[in-house]
Amino acid sequence: MKLKNIFVISILCLSFTACQSFLEVEDEGRSSIPVFFSDMDGVRAALPGAYSRIYKYYDSEFLLYPDVAGDMLEMTIVGADTKMAPQFNYISNPDQTIGAVSYIWEYCYDALTNINNIINYYPALLEKFPGNKNELNNIMANALFLRALVHFDLVKVYAQNYNYTTDASHLGIPIVLKIPGPNDNLKRNTVENVYAQILGDLKDADALFEGASFNENKAPYYASSSAVQGLLARVSLYMGKNEEAIMHASKAIEAKSLSQGPDYINVFTQNNFVGETIFKLNGWLQKSATSSFYNNGPIGFASTKLITLFQDQEDIRLDLLQVQNNGTHSTLKHTKTDVNQGEVQYDLILMRASEMYLIRAEANIKLNSLEEAKSDLKSLIARALQKTPIEIEITENTQEEMMNLLMNERAKELAFEGHRLFDLSRNHQSLERAENTLSTVQFIAYPSDLFILPIPQAEIDANTNILQNSGY
């Protein structure tokens, strides 16, 4: 079976036929690449091309998967081919060539092909065009950020959480730093090694962004110092490195404040409103599959479990839930009100200041710094209830009570933004859906093989060095 790996440079697309693996590119395509990276115009065009590939995998299945497989979303399954139905019912199959199992893997490694070209040609371009050093450093920083993001996304989907084993020695995903050739039969690296690569790329990106006079100008559609700090905070939290998570989250918070009142709603419903958004993907001329999933019907909507978490009906986050004729609640987080007729633009928000407050609060709870955690949670709750933090009382006083509060606040704040299953897994919590769930699966105890997807069988057939996940 021939699988495709596509290298995109802005409006110019070159297709490379993979040698029966998502991780390979044939010589025919390989020989064309140096031509495009021989001047500044080529690398300038390559960066938006790389971002386009990131949008593709986020919008296709990746952003949906953690919520569909979690406990805060329900699905209307209208047939066997309903999008994400296998993940909702936990019947993902390695042989599935259409859907999340195959597409997330394929599209992520597809994106890495584009990103690695930018990174690998950077030294030669820097030597050839020293007068463009600042611009090249900015492009390189973006590429390093994206490479870290893609590896992080892959390891969350196809490998167990970082602390699944005491030393993170369990199987992760193949680290790809260059275009693999026909004889490069890559193996799965350990989760420890994958995270080390992620941190290395992010720290290198941060160093390149430092001192760049224009690195924030294109934010939030491009990476920035704030986005690097935000992703470092998220990665550190997933690793259990709580002090580092607090440090990086604090730096991100310094650069981006919480959106208040109507501005909070505008963050989601208006493409042209930035507010507390740290990083998002440009959906210009993109017909969003994510938006269709949450708006047409909708297929995905809030679970009873999520709705019952909102104990105060004045919570502004309820304004982002729309009651349908059948009584279900659909999300407005992927509905845009500022798109003119005839235009198509569905931006995808990947990082917000609110998450940084939640990261810092969680890390402080795990360090038993409960008062510091309460301060951040009060800021979020006060914003939601349109009060001041001093008016908010938190009665929880133990680590366990505070973690329960934190998880509930994360569920309410980050619903439908691609976090829930990962939050459960990294905190070693079981999946427990409402008793009235429409899924065939109501409970899965942690740990479980089902908390990750199988490696596509097509990849394993093409490369015997790739081992399948346990249970598949």
TrEMBL record:
One of its GO terms (cellular component) is cell outer membrane. Residues 360-387 form a coiled coil. Residues 1-20 form the signal peptide. It is found in: Cell outer membrane. SUPFAM superfamilies: TPR-like (SSF48452). Residues 328-472 form the RagB/SusD domain. Belongs to the SusD family. This is RagB/SusD domain-containing protein. It comes from Imtechella halotolerans K1. The lineage of its organism: Bacteria, Pseudomonadati, Bacteroidota, Flavobacteriia, Flavobacteriales.
